[in-house]
Amino acid sequence: MDSHLILLLVFGFLAGLMDAAVGGGGLLQIPALFNTLPASVPVTSVMGINKFASFSGTFMASVQFIRKIPVPWKMLLPAAVLAFIASYGGAKLVAYLPVQYLKPAILVIMAVMFVYTFFKKDLGQVVRTTALTRKETALGLLFGVLIGFYDGLFGPGTGSLLAFVFVRFFAYDFLTATASAKIINLTTNLAALSFFIPNNHIVWAWALPLALANLSGGIVGTHLAIRGGSKFLRYAFMALLCVLIGKFGWDLLHAAY
Q: What does the domain layout of the chain look like in residue ranges?
């Protein structure tokens, strides 16, 4: 087996594990793809391979989560449909909107999320037992549109944004929030694939083994998340935010100089 493929599979497994447990798997998988795939592979194909593998891992994680964690289906299903539509629309607008200007805004949002989570020790630690109100359901649909659009247009940090929304605005514990975020994330990945696959932007010789590695990592990551519970996920969530803040900060600093 090619050494580049072996290295990519290792990163694919770790990305699937990370993504299932707390999100942010793309931070590992996308750089790995750019560093291991031949230079002749177009950027659109790199992103298509990444989305196919990510969809596979997220699908497995979603199945694992919903078998053990109750999620608010009444709000999630319509929100997922709206997120799918918004994500596809965002992907179509990538060529027309200056997405680089989103990085400073997302950096600020991530920093605020970290500070809020750090100081609010009980955030996401209590299991909600009541149903969502109509107002909360409507708010969930709105967030589905906004975050779905962001995922199609830009992408990084989508899982973290979703998890924070479910914890902060709907008072869910981190475990339920992570499971719910996977459902929305699954549909936004599917929206991207509905563009990449028909336009032949996926190199299957790389995408299929990477998807298998990502899927395997998703199984392990979901097991760790469920076993660790909300306390583990709170710390993992803050750790991921630190990584995202560092990544966006470095990108902005590099672009400035």
A: 1-255
